[in-house]
Amino acid sequence: MYIENKVSDSESKQYHFPDIYFQDITEIHNNKEFSVKRKYTGLYTVFINIIEEKTQNCRISFSGVFPRMTYICKNHDFSDTEIYHLNKFRIHCNRIRQNRDIPSYEDYLHDLKSLSDFIAKIYERPIPENLKECLPHATRSITSADYAPDINIRITVSSWDKDFITGYTEDDNSVFVKIDYHKYAQNNDLDYIADLLAENTQLYLLNTKIEKNGILCPEQIIYEPDYLLEISTIARCWKEYGDHPCNYLLEKISPARNTPAMLLGNLAGQFLDETINTQDLHENSYNNSIKRFFIKSALKIITCEESLKDFHHQAKEQMKNIRNFVEKIFPEIHNIERDKLILEPSFICKELGIQGRVDLLQDNYKILMEQKSGKRDIYTNGHKEEHYIQMLLYRLLLSYNFNIKSKDSEQYLLYSKYPDGLMLESSSDPNLMRKILRLRNRIVKYEMLYAEGAIKNILENLTPEELNINAKTNVLWKKFQLPHIRQILSIYQNASYLEKCYFARLFTFISKEHLLAKTGNSSKNRGFSGIWRCEVAEKESTGDILTGLDLVNKEESGIYGGYDTITFSVPSQEDDLLPNFRNGDIVLLYSYPEGDIPNACKAKILRGTIKNICYTEVTVRLQSPQKNTCIFPENQKWVIEHDFWESSYTSIYQALFAFLSADKKRKELLLNLCLPTKDSTKKLNGNYNTENVFLNDVILKAKQANDYFLLIGPPGTGKTSYALVAMVKEALSESSSILLSAYTNRAVDEICDKMDKHKIQYIRIGSELSCDERFRKNLLDEKIRLNPNADIVRKVIQETRVFVGTITSISGKLNLFGIKHFDLAIIDEASQILEPNLLGILCARHKNQTAIDKFIFIGDHKQLPAVVQQSERESIVSEPELIKIGMSDCRNSLFERLINIQKKNGSEDFIHMLFKQGRMHPEISSFSNEIFYEKKLKPIPLKHQLEILHCPSYDKSDGLQNLIASHRLAFIVSKGDKNPISDKTNKDEAIRISALLKTIYTINKNNFNPQTVGVIVPYRNQIALIRKEIKQLNIPALSDITIDTVERYQGSERDFIIYGFTVQKIYQLEFLTGNVFKDNGQTIDRKLNVVLTRARKQLFLIGNPQILSYNIIFQKLIKFIDNRQGVCDIPIEYFIQGKFSCSPADKTSVPDSRQKLNV
């Protein structure tokens, strides 16, 4: 097989995948320095690269390595025996990675043969003779599985019929199994499972018995268990009129409600938390409590859909009842121990495919309590069935996770509306539970169907009658439920054909992103399921877990009572490990016994946000403060893992549906059914030209555009610092209200900084920990803290003319538009925002009009786009109707689509490109300018852009100092490592980078500032390796240099930038060039463009030209630098010692006349 660079068949070198893989495993096997463990590590890397390459364009979602492996094997007609042997290799690799045991050398040889046979068969290439002669001739024997009775087994489905399912187990037994899914099913209630299945479906077989003939007979089956559903979500889908899985769909797309009952529910939850956490009656008085609630819920309160006239009376009743329960009734219940009660712990059950957060749990699991602020069943005066279902699922989850028996636990529903609302409930209803799990399975199946494009057909044919499974005809159905369902369905069914196509394609795209975020993509990304699917060592290697943490401090913020700020010490990390956590990240937090393996599925999980993190400490702000210290056990270690924010997808689904009922003119603009207009009579009120910056023309064009305006801002053109500020000033001169937004919190912080510098008043939308400390005073919470009053809040919002926040933050607070109309929205980083993510803001309504009159997008579509998990094949747009309106790939931003529309229309009235850049010296910008920007960029010029490179003091006999003192742009040749630890590290480059940093420090020792130097590499493992090399230099200032990936560097700049390509294998070029597209016939490499445009004064690139030259743009780059005498091909021992000559006029050389670089 050949692979060719995406750019052009004629421009790219060709290379053979199987030849590379065979060469790799031969070198690994023949390396005498490698232990068996090291050999397995290398072979597994090759194996992973193969299955990634063979599944990268699949439209199927895979939950891990095993299903991807079986998919490839089935497509190439592997026998069950061949799959068994290959899976044995995978299992041995995993056992080594888990540090469990090391296979024998005989096993190793058989595994080497299995991998070699795998490569030979899928690529239809013979095993090379020099490798074949090393392999065993005999085939190893197949061992049978030995399962305990009533076991839970995970399988990958191979085939099925009305009687049996066949598949492969994923455990260490790795066997082909046959499942009778009827024998122990009650009332044939597993018959429906056959309708859900597809090849490679994942199933959990629960309470499985093994017949004498080896057939597995489960009592229950969970479909796609990695797709976790919230327990509360499942319960809400259990409607009085029926349990159709589309109940979940209607809930997802329906506009978010904001009712007094919902507000009261949130307040009642706060009352319970406060009552458990503190017995201070003054601090916990109604007035103090309602003030705290108002501050955090002010926007919801003043935009409530219904009257709040009885709210205080009802709230006081709730508080009185809750206090009575906790203070008087709890002590009378034998098993309740108040000092062991935990607030809102979360749990994940991998077997049941569910997760949830319990309102109140006793540490020893003897008490489980779920609070409800609403009404009980009006007919029975007992529980509502959906509430009981929620409690049953929590009970079942605890049973599977912790083996808690029914007799050892009591379950309560706490209806805090009633003085007698504490109800002890039955912990078991097997028949009802089977129905609930069936609903869970069917909901997940529908979620899979949405990701495959079924939404259009489902919504087109869905009727209220289909949802009304129980054939209800009562008043509740006729007066409330039926009209609501009809209203939602009619919005879609009455839409135009084009609107339906648009909605359906983007809904499919987001559904697939949602699915992949949960279960992982066709690469190694496991999504949220990685928490239980990935081994600790694997998560440590990707930086997605912090283990071995010691709790060193816990504090009460004094707001709600209870410890809410927890600080942990971080143990020293291995040299090749680098945590992937940052301030503001949402995380899971749990403890485990020292010496055990951390397991989130066997823990009480606390959710929180990272307040501060450094190499030695991490501080987390808990979502639910905890007063009782039993949740913080002594002599236990702690773990931090990444959390998943489900609500971020909910807002996108609602935004997509809001598009269907948006203002007609706005829909027509977005669908390219009408052209934007301008008003040429408008004139500027201000002057935005300065000595170096000339913005009057672009600000006037933006002002005259009535509907939208697109500002393209290449690197260093001041699109935020100057253009955005000028637009805001001009709009404020017209008494306009302005919404400012961006994709990242960092960009929003930068906007806030500019507003502060220009003394422009604004309100920041967002949370405290996602906002830089300098700007927290502008958060709405802080603006009203001293005077929490509804009228004051309305006045503050109405009188404030500028609001700032991320797209996510604003999309989560769309009720703002209920009381605030905006004349203008300016969206920065628009090229990084997916089209559906913007629809909630663009389609929001204020009363009977569009909430935002005009929008301006600022960005650069030639820099990195939004991070998307789907491949081009999955995200491509094929619908002719959508292609006509400029949609080609769902991964592209709305900004880019509108740019292409305006270019096609030949109009310059609504689009402008800034071309004066003040960042890069012309020698640095020249390649990007020529290759990516059609030579349109010009220096302003600022002082540093005119200066001749000059180092006042350096050792002219040191070649490395000479190189830095004489070259603004250089390419340093690295030949890579002889025995690389990983294909994601490159020790040769790491050593060269550390030598460069040391030399830059030496030359600039008297005024060195680490904030002026940056290092960019593609892999986190390489960051850790460079940190290790820097540490050995014993220069403290260098430890403060930012070393990061290009994705993290977008939007940043440094005087000195060093970029290490790192790659040592040709197939890694696929990753390096993963963001390439064509623009006017020119190939644009977005990732490389960002790399090359971060440096102000000097840029040094390090890589292997023999590998990089397989890519035409990299080849051009190296030639470009070589033509300017900037290629340095020096052996590493000479390089780090500076033992080579270097001058601007001559190519670098060493005394023994090294071979010149040929590219």
UniProtKB/TrEMBL annotation:
CDD domains (UniProt xref): SF1_C_Upf1
Query: Which InterPro entries does the UniProt record give?
Result: DNA2/NAM7-like, DNA2/NAM7-like_C, DNA2/NAM7_AAA_11, DNA_replication_fac_Dna2_N, P-loop_NTPase, SF1_C_Upf1
Q: Which UniProt keywords apply?
A: ATP-binding, DNA damage, DNA repair, DNA-binding, Helicase, Hydrolase, Iron, Iron-sulfur, Metal-binding, Nuclease, Nucleotide-binding
Instruction: Extract the GO molecular function terms from the UniProt entry.
Output: ATP binding; DNA binding; helicase activity; hydrolase activity; iron-sulfur cluster binding; metal ion binding; nuclease activity
Q: Which residues form the DNA2/NAM7 helicase helicase domain?
A: 790-869
Q: What Gene Ontology terms for biological process does this UniProt record contain?
A: DNA repair
| Keyword Nucleotide-binding set for record | yes
Give the superkingdom in one word: Bacteria
- Keyword hit for Metal-binding: yes
Domain DNA2/NAM7 helicase-like C-terminal intervals: 892-1105
Record domain DNA replication factor Dna2 N-terminal: where: 219-333
Instruction: Please give the name of this protein.
Output: DNA replication factor Dna2
